[in-house]
Design goal:
Largest sheet: 2 strands, antiparallel
Shape: elongated
Low-confidence stretches: 411-416
Radius of gyration: 33 Å
Strand content: under 5%
Structural class: mainly alpha
Number of strands: 6
Number of helices: 28
Mean pLDDT: 84
């Protein structure tokens, strides 16, 4: 190929390329430049790297001097309350105004920007020195508010317009190269987590920002070892990212066995790195033995084990046992039905008693959810149940004595009753409905609406199908069924009295419950019960036009 042909082809291709493709090509060419050609390449891009390095190096003393004046209290600010602030009408105005007569805020922004500008040019010592002075810095407030401001607060509250995440990364990158070896990991951790309890996915940029870091492997080993000594959320997030760089089942197995008691997610990383279902199952079973049963993350190890066991065609009882382990560590309705449906297949005669025994054992070791878990790392979150969730699981299992024993002795339903909760009420009606899948408008509407919850399933169908399949193994004596139906009727009509005339938006939902009650009564050999139930509601509130219209949508005939 001649030179003219070569240049003609290059020109034609360049003219075809998009702006984004051109940027990517330039970056590839930049990455291919040897160290002794990088400055020359930058000059062709219009960047005089040597000149910029000299200017940045000369600027360091000036930046440190500005920080020193602020730290010594020579440059202060005066705060005052913004009289025009209103959290409703003017929520975007600052609540506190600052008189920055000495320009402390622009000086801090300049220092932050300086650290970030140093990194790409390899001035890590300069960036490190300035970042050490910025870390403890406060701007003193001698005004009305009297609240001294940290650098991180200034950025987070947008008093200074600067991306503090960008600064964190630059400060950490400088510490990586310049900190003393015995304190390096701690300084990097402090930089990455300053005012940021959940740092995520920073190492990719960390290792590709500025000069190439030569000792990535050695650093990762010491970095992971450091993070495994800490139990906080930030350490868990950073460790989650760091172990992804290992990508070696043997190293991950070592980390899991050595540090899994502090960071159980290491077991999941190991399982996911395994090759072949035998290895996956073996690693998952080891995780189930090592992770405390009350950690919800253990259920994820159980789910991986179940999937591998199914692919390996392991005995059904082994898969059932793993399914129970998932339920024991994450006690949800979904996990309950996974266990119950499999148990039905394996032991149709004894499944009820086995289910009752297993679920009672699980619930006896499950904590109550008090709602305040503090800063609990995601990997150490515990399996906790709200009172209603516990009652729902007992009801669905068929432990009626625990859930309904007291209710069935009362003449009126109390507000604390399980049946006063709408999903509990829907389950009660479903249990009493004798004809399989409900076909009436009311019961179908209420069941679907109540079962469609984020913690059950997307459309309610899975919940309904699972419950109906399991219902044939549930038995409530006929007398107690009649008492339960009466209690449900009292509850539904009491709710009607609280809604009609007060909450019009709930009329349709209320009418659906009334229709559902009538449909269950009619299905239980009470001909005409649906219309009678709707007529009873109509007689009580015939003057409420919109409520009557809602009843008509569910079958009321006037």
């Amino acid at each position: 190929m001649t030179d003219s042909e070569y240049h003609a082809l290059v020109r034609a291709r360049v003219l075809e390329m998009s702006e984004e493709d051109m940027r990517l090509l330039l970056m590839e060419i930049a990455d291919e430049q040897p160290a002794d050609r990088q400055d020359a390449f930058l000059r062709r891009l219009g960047v005089d790297a040597q000149k910029t390095r000299r200017e940045l190096s000369d600027e360091k003393d000036h930046v440190l001097g500005e920080i020193g004046h602020i730290a010594a209290g020579e440059y202060t600010v005066k705060s005052r309350v913004n009289e025009n602030y209103d959290d409703w009408y003017r929520p975007f105005e600052p609540q506190i105004l600052y008189d920055d007569r000495n320009g402390a805020f622009p000086k801090i922004r300049h220092a932050l920007d300086y650290v970030c500008r140093c990194i790409p040019f390899g001035l890590l010592e300069e960036a490190y020195e300035v970042s050490l002075e910025l870390a403890p810095l406060y701007v003193f407030d001698d005004g009305e508010y009297r609240h001294d401001l940290s650098v991180q607060e200034l950025c987070d509250n947008e008093i200074i317009d600067f991306d503090f995440t960008k600064y964190r990364l630059a400060a950490a990158r400088a510490a990586l190269e310049c900190a003393e070896k015995e304190s390096r990991e701690q300084e990097i951790y402090d930089a990455l987590t300053q005012g940021n309890p959940h740092p995520r996915k920073m190492l990719d940029e960390f290792f590709t920002t500025g000069p190439v870091f030569r000792d990535t492997g050695e650093f990762l080993t010491s970095w992971i070892r450091f993070l495994t000594t800490r139990k906080d959320s930030a350490a868990a997030d950073l460790l989650d990212e760091a172990v992804d760089y290992l990508d070696d089942p043997e190293k991950l197995a070592f980390c899991a066995r050595s540090f899994g008691d502090v960071h159980p997610m290491l077991y999941l990383k190991w399982i996911d790195a395994c090759d072949g279902d035998e290895e996956i199952l073996s690693a998952a079973q080891e995780a189930l033995q090592a992770i405390p049963v009350d950690f919800t993350i253990r259920a994820q190890a159980a789910e991986r084990a179940i999937a591998a066991a199914k692919r390996l065609q392991r005995p059904p009882e082994e898969i059932l046992s793993l399914t129970l382990e998932a339920f024991a560590s994450e006690t949800t309705v979904s996990n309950l039905f996974s266990y119950l449906l499999l148990l039905m297949e394996l032991d149709p005669e004894g499944c009820r008693e086995r289910a009752l025994s297993s679920v009672r054992e699980v619930l006896s070791h499950t904590e109550k959810d008090e709602g305040d878990h503090g800063d609990e790392p995601w990997e150490r979150q515990k399996n906790r149940l709200y009172c209603f969730s516990r009652l729902l699981i007992q009801f669905l299992t068929g432990d009626f004595d625990s859930v309904l024993g007291e209710d069935l002795e009362k003449k009126e339903v109390q507000s604390s009753s399980f049946l006063s909760w709408e999903l509990g009420r829907a389950c009660g009606l479903l249990l009493l409905y004798p004809d399989g899948v409900p076909c009436g408008k009311g019961l179908a509407a209420t069941v679907k609406r109540e079962a469609v919850r984020p913690w059950y399933d997307k459309d309610g169908e899975t919940f309904l199908t699972s419950f109906l399949a399991w219902k044939k193994h549930l038995s409530l004596p006929a007398k107690q069924q009649e008492i339960l139906l009466r209690i449900l009727g009292q509850d539904i009509f009491q709710e009607m009295e609280r809604i009609v005339g007060v909450r019009r938006k709930q009329y349709d939902r209320c009418a659906a419950w009334i229709a559902a009650l009538g449909e269950v009564r009619e299905a239980r050999n009470q001909p005409g019960a649906l219309q009678e139930t709707l007529q009873e509601a109509y007689a009580a509130h015939s003057g409420a036009r919109r409520f009557v219209e809602a009843l008509e949508r569910y079958g009321l005939k006037r």
